[in-house]
Amino acid sequence: MLKLLYICRNFLTDYKMNRTFSLAVALMVFAFAVNAQGHDKRSPIIADDGTVTFKVAAARADSVRLIVDTRVDTLMSRNDGGKWCVTLRDLKPDFYMYHFIVDGMKVLDNDNAHVVRDVKNVMNSFALDPKEDCPMAVHDVPHGKVEAVWYDSPSLGATRRMMVYLPPDYVKGGKRYPVLYLLHGSGGDETVWLEQGRAAQVLDNLIADGVAEPMIVVMPNGNVDEKAVPGMGPDCNVQPTFSHKNWMDGTFEQSFNDIVKWTDKHYRTLADKHHRSIAGLSMGGYHSLYISANQPDDFDYVGLFSAAINRMDEGKSKIYDDLEAKLVKQFERHPKLYWIGIGKDDFLYEHNAKFRALMDKNNLPYTYHESGAGHEWANWRDYLVIFLPMLFK
Amino acid sequence: MLKLLYICRNFLTDYKMNRTFSLAVALMVFAFAVNAQGHDKRSPIIADDGTVTFKVAAARADSVRLIVDTRVDTLMSRNDGGKWCVTLRDLKPDFYMYHFIVDGMKVLDNDNAHVVRDVKNVMNSFALDPKEDCPMAVHDVPHGKVEAVWYDSPSLGATRRMMVYLPPDYVKGGKRYPVLYLLHGSGGDETVWLEQGRAAQVLDNLIADGVAEPMIVVMPNGNVDEKAVPGMGPDCNVQPTFSHKNWMDGTFEQSFNDIVKWTDKHYRTLADKHHRSIAGLSMGGYHSLYISANQPDDFDYVGLFSAAINRMDEGKSKIYDDLEAKLVKQFERHPKLYWIGIGKDDFLYEHNAKFRALMDKNNLPYTYHESGAGHEWANWRDYLVIFLPMLFK
């Protein structure tokens, strides 16, 4: 019964259907599904020993490769059944993205419905989590609420979408909460910290463990040319891109107070410097650096995750002028935490080293975290887990 | 500059990278992106005359086909550039899903980052919307808020995820709102009415036009074996499936009051029969039928969208027993609307006809809408647009 059901679905998915055939198959699926209990053919196959096996049916191909993030690129072997296979060992518990290259053409795993997007690149995903305490997985703890809201930005003359995490206790009413503004990179949008970053799961787990303070987390869209993630904005077909007209030119930083004001108006926030944090990855780190430097009275906790500090754009916007003097002024207000994280292999490593030298020269105190690997989500998820417990203490 | 940038990205996406090469390319992309303004290479290409052109690079393939929903299955032609192309004409304004079949293997459009999932089947999507008044597109109107929340279900012994739409005025406070419980089909989950159904956009637009009453819309997960959409639940790798252990066996219907109670506790609802509606597609229509029949004092507006009425499961659960008597009792309370919609080509058409005959036999009044096409989202989006204006009037 199960086997037949599976065959039906392959037909539904992959092969030509005329209307009559389609209806017949749909009816069969419908009827059979009643008795097909717990059918869940997974791909990739994660064994108890932590090995991960990938398979792809490409009967006519001459070569098939598996790409996993920037970490693995390996040839696959054709097995007896005509499928191409490979087994990976020693992957560490984490969330992974992968795809196949079949005779030079990118192909997804048709047996895995889990996909994530990185800028324009759609890939399959899987989680490797043998440890029960992985902070990125969903555990049996109280869950916060995640909202998609539209805020007014008078500076940009636009209504824009952003995501807001509210801690589990928020719905009980009464209490006010500190706020973390969590910013994405150049190719991201308001949803990426929730999807690739697993921010809601990390927050739920760290709050439940008493390691992080209950907080509101606001995730706006840092590309001012976009009103929303592609598909949720006025142009249904727009493609995600690195390149935006008003890209890192000070526009987002200058409009940022619209987000803070809207948040303080619509949520039960603690609306002062001691209860505000701003942090971001790559472009979001650059945004966090300049927003906090230009608004020295607003943020007591700053996080630069692999920040794009290679762009020192004096003259492009007043936001970027006189950074050194602004930093000195910011630190006269004694921010409680200025956190810098970067991977050893990140192409922005040297730029971050130069920035730290500038900080050192002025005796400006910061916390530095150097990890392995480069400019990638594996680091940013880890940085969030390290950063959150230091906030609002 | 733009061309080079594009080449870089192809390398990033599709070809083997060692760490050094990866860093060099990332740096190039980063540097070039600054000046690459408005780069947005779309696929498919939608011309002003409404034609839609699809292209796929599969240099070594012998045959390539394009599949669009259940509506189009066509061979593509190899063009001079080595790509396979086809142009479609006369598609009506709507949202479409598509994929390619390259030598028998399902392949997505690597130039289109828009993907949607239908059960386990991941496909590309595009919107064809030459009319400015398309109710499924994002227009310049006030937007409601969409929340992902976790509710307690004592009946199921679980905390489960559901989506809630709150109308634009909700955040202003004070006012109470009617509630529509909007249910998905057998292969869906709590997110599918928002993704494939475009429910938030439809609600925003119809409320802005004064055509629909401002309302709260609650979208739970109707598969009781799932706590959340795959990827957002405790098992990160679980695959979406039609087949569930507790599938259409009365368990969901019996636990439904947990959802209503949680909603009335956590939102400013109008908590009575006159301000409650329940509607759903396929399995969700079956759920709506039995929940409203078993709770005749709770819902004044019922919507059956292509309902799975082929399953008359007397004896399987007390929920399904004595339907005719229950319906008679339900209609003694004079529900304000009992709406039945079905497509002429739906494999459930005859079952819906039989159900209408049962209604007719007992002189139970209902509103009937018969559309073209079959068991598909093109119909369900339309049904929602027709159904919403009839509620809470």
Detailed description of the structure:
The structure is a homodimer of 393-residue chains. The termini of chain A are far apart. The first copy, chain A, is 26% helix and 25% strand. By secondary structure, the first copy, chain A, is an alpha/beta fold. In chain A, strand 16 (301-305), helix 7 (323-332) and strand 17 (337-343) form a beta-alpha-beta unit. At the A-B interface, helix 1, helix 2, strand 7, strand 8 and strand 10 of A face helix 1, helix 2, strand 7, strand 8 and strand 10 of B. Strand 11 of chain A pairs antiparallel with strand 11 of chain B.
- Helix percentage range of chain A: 25-40%
Radius of gyration of chain A, taken over Cα atoms and rounded to an integer in Å: 24 Å
What coarse outline of chain A follows from CA principal-axis ratios? Answer: globular
Instruction: Give me the number of helical elements of chain A.
Output: 9
- What's the story with the biggest beta sheet of chain A? 8 strands, mixed
- CATH topology assignment of the largest domain in chain A: Rossmann fold
Give the largest interface. A-B, 103 and 103 residues
> Secondary-structure element order of chain A, as H and E?
HHEEEEEEEEEEEEEHHEHEHEHEHEH
Low-confidence spans of chain A: pLDDT under 50, at least 5 residues?
A: 1-38
For the secondary structure, the number of strands of chain A is: 18
Distance between the termini of chain A: 58 Å
